[in-house]
Amino acid sequence: MYEIWLMLNIVWEIALGIWPLLLAGAVLWLALLGTAWRQDGQHWRANILPALVIGAAVAVVAALLLPGSIGSTLSDMGYWVDWGMLLALAAAVGGMAVAFAWPLLSWRHGRARA
Amino acid sequence: MKKPTAVPPIDPVRRRWLQAMAAAPLVAGATTPSLVKAAVKTRARIVIAGSGLGGIAVANRLSQLLDGAKITIIDRKEEHNYQPGYTLVATGVWPVDKVRDRNADYQPAGIEWVKDMVASFDPVANTVTTASGQRIEYDFLVVATGVHLDFAQIAGMDVAAIGREGLTSVYPSPEAAQATWAAMQAFTAQGGQAVMTLPATPLKCAGAPLKMSFMLRDRLFKAGTLDASKIRFQSALGNVFGVKVVNDNVLERWQTLGIDVEFSRALKAIDIGARRATFSSPEGETQEMPYDLIHVVPPTRAPDAVKNSELAWKEGPFAAGGWLEVDKSTLQHRRFPNVFGIGDINGTPRGKTAATVKKSAPLVAHNLVEVIAGRQANQAFDGYTSCPLITREGSAMLIEFDYEGRLTPSLPMIEPLQDSFFAWLMKVRMLKPAYMAVLKGRV
Fold first, then answer.
1. pLDDT tens-digit profile of B101-120?
2. Which of A34, B55, B148, B189 maximizes the CB count within 10 A of its CB?
């Protein structure tokens, strides 16, 4: 339980350090979601697969670039814990890409058909 | 007979959400034990000497745990330094700004901050006197003064000269760490003879001299000047790290990396202009050693205010350094039960690190509250400490151990002696946020 509490605090402190960025991202995401939601002829279901493909592509790129962003390299991956952490971080980045890509694609698809 | 009212069926998904919402306070309660306790009412006067990580962390916790206490922090220093980051600044990984904050931003509301230094302690009269002569009475005292870096034991040493003539030291300040990086860059551009030192006293962050050696070797390798260089590690300890399994692992690595080690050389004097260091052996023999770059690790002892007081150990291995005489389990003073120690000042077997404070600050606050409430200090510290030992840029080992030198990884899957991206990520991105949470009294 202590480790869970510690990790939550670490995430909180990291978020405190970049809160303007997080706030801007959240506002942008909500605006995107609202715009796509209000549009006639939504195509959410049709765009989930393309959004997932984009997310997967972003995750792959993130996995390749993340080590370099902190002065490390893929050759520094020592054991499965390293790979697990890297893949989890890459998946988180990919998940964020999906969160933005899905409403964006739905909105663009709707506009194109309107 | 009244017919029971039919209960509408609940959607299984909704049921799971409701269960999760009901369980949320239980999870929060289990993970934040200090926040759910009722504050103890008291009029106690508590003085905290020092506003480093230990002093502020305990102040924040006591503010949560006590209602009505008068808490006074005594420390002249206004800048708060994230000292675990000094090695990252000194090796060019971090800019110096990342280790600089303001103490005022982290102290709890409602405390008194006396911007002065404690000049003397009188635990018999329950008073401290500051450098300006102010006499402050207390009912309970927390000693959190940190260590004194005793560069004066090295003849010819001048802290102000760090960064010039190949003189480096990561210990004194952010400025020294920054100057160390400048000197390291100049050195690695050409290569040469590097001398790394390690004194025989208890040491603040005992892994720092090793990290500096690993990183210097890595910087030489990346600059392409490793072949024109030699790193010599001069230890006065008989080893390079107090935990045998770690010591053996590091020595094995250094043998592969070409870092030579001497085990009985103490730095006694330095001629900065001539770039010559003088070492002595336990037998009293001296040896001069020329260098192009030297990393000086100062002997450490308790600050004079503690060393010259009744609070210091009077016999045993911690007496020479004047360290605070606390019980290693409860961190309560062995002769003055209204006094506790936190952090580097404690005369305990290991652990002059931020990780030690992380684990012991909640315990000190709890035990002090117990004593204020008229009970016995009842929580025991196992000596936990941690050292994210950098082995090169991009990789580290996450070593955690206790008083007995047993490896005690926090997470069972962590391999303490494994070079790891995860440990490096912890060091450069996650440990400062963890430190901040400790400082604020939350973990």
1. 999 999 999 999 999 999 99
2. B55
B395 in reach of chain A (CB within 8 A): yes
ipTM: 0.92
Q: Where are the domains of chain A?
A: 2-113
Q: Do B421 and A67 touch (CB under 8 A)?
A: yes
Q: What are phi and psi of B139, to 5 degrees?
A: -100, -35
Mean pLDDT calculated for residue range A10-23: 97
Query: Of A102-106, B5-9, B232-236, B435-439, where does mean pLDDT reach its minimum?
Result: B5-9
Question: Which one is catalytic: B205, B339, B364, B377?
Answer: B205
B93 contact residues in A (CB cutoff 8 A): 71
Of A14, A72, A79, the CB nearest to B415: A79
B344 among known catalytic residues:
no
Burial B45-62 (b: 16+ CB within 10 A, else e): bbbbbbbbbbbbbbbbbb
Domains and CATH numbers, chain B: 40-91+99-147+302-372 (3.50.50.60), 151-299 (3.50.50.60)
Please give the C-alpha separations between residue B372 and each of A7, B337, B369, in angstroms, as whole numbers.
Answer: 32, 10, 5
Q: Considering only CB atoms, which chain B residues are within 8 Å of A77?
A: 421
Q: Is residue B387 among the annotated active site residues?
A: yes
B391 close contact with A: CB closer than 8 A: no
